Amino acid sequence: MKAWVELWDRHEPPHVLAVVRMLIAAVVMVDFAHIYGLDLVETFYASSADGGLANLGSRNPKPLLYRWLPLESSTAWWSLCAAFFSALAFGTGTLTRLSGLVFVLASANLAQILPPTDRAIDTLLRNMVLLLSFSSSHRVWSVDALVRYRRWSGDPRPTPAWPRFLIIIQLFIMYFTAGVQKVGLTWTPVGDWSALYIVLRDPAFAVLSDPTLDAFYRVTQLATISTWLWEWSTPVAAYALWCRATHTRPGRIRAWLNTSAFWPKWVIVGACFHLGIAATMRLGMFPYGVLALYPAFFPGVEWRRWLRRNPETKTPPLG
Fold first, then answer.
1. For the chain, how many structural domains are there in total?
2. Which residues pair with 159 in a beta bridge?
3. Where does residue 260 rank: exposed (0-12), middle (13-18), buried (19+ CB within 10 A)?
């Protein structure tokens, strides 16, 4: 119990949270820009009476902005602009907490206009923005820090680390539940480990040609096995992080997890999986949105040690 209390009471500089804040905003803004580039703003967010896909005329209650603005195509543009510019303000750290809450509402408004456009990654990032809005991510590398402390670097003094821990827990839940839901035969030897081969051939997601996939069928089998095992190993990764973050009684399993560097290897494999998804599948901002959260896996002192390439630097236990 003491170790549990110490973990949640831990403080650390807010730089990692600031990086996650900026990365989330960048990914979301690029996604909105892509919608604009494809000329889908009115298609997605305008009423069917104005040529859009949203049936807003008879809906009650209406989406947030459509309660205040007329049922016209211009409101579709206002809806997207509200989400885009609130994300910009959040990323630059301008009135960070307020702009974060505005983004959450604006993003939820878009989801309510046309629910099929609200993907799981939209929900995940919306939750993360809400979480960061209550954190100290604005204390460094933000306009708020520039205004308050007269320097962009802001105030690097340690702040509560619990928002970073909650980001990690959210990713643990996402990965493990994804693993336990992979119960189809194609994820097992009975189905010849063919799950990813089948997915990569789906015209909705396909990037590689069928002959290429046929030539690398064994590679897709290996990727299927690796993905399944990696997601199922999430509880082991959680325990490895707990061992690194707390001063628990040493044991064989703890010693093996620490000496084998299981935790950083697990994180690196996850990053490689998402980079592979980005290279081989059309899944929108999903791989980039999840990777935007990956800096939270390590505290700032660990990132500084790696970036400075100074193995002699002693680091406290990870949190």
1. 2
2. 12
3. exposed
Are residues 113 and 44 in contact, defined by beta-carbon separation less than 8 angstroms? Answer: yes
Residue 75 lies in a domain: yes
Tokens 């305008």 belong to 46
Structural domain span for residue 103: 12-159
- CA–CA distance, 199 with 220 (Å, rounded to integer): 10
Q: What is the spatial distance between Cα 75 and Cα 56, in angstroms, rounded to a whole number? A: 12
Strands (E), the chain: 11-12, 159-160
pLDDT in tens, 230-247: 999 999 999 999 888 876
Are 202 and 299 part of one and the same domain? yes
Please check whether residues 98 and 183 belong to one and the same domain.
no
Domain for residue 167, yes or no? yes
Give the Cα separation of 75 and 155 in Å (integer).
Answer: 40
Q: Is it the case that residue 165 has pLDDT exceeding 60? A: yes
Q: Is the distance from CB of 176 to CB of 235 less than 8 angstroms?
A: yes
Same domain, 135 and 191: no
Task: Give the torsion sign (CA, 140, 141, 147, 150).
Answer: positive
Residue 3 lies in a domain: no
User: Of the residues 159, 176, 207, which one is the last residue of a structural domain?
Assistant: 159
Q: How confident is the model at residue 310 (pLDDT cuts 50, 70, 90)?
A: low
Give the sign of the dihedral formed by CA 56, CA 90, CA 278, CA 229: negative
Burial class (CB in 10 A: 0-12, 13-18, 19+), 230: middle
Q: 108 and 189: one domain?
A: no
Same domain, 115 and 170: no
C-beta separation of 76 from 52 below 8 A: yes
Q: In this structure, is residue 7 part of a structural domain? A: no
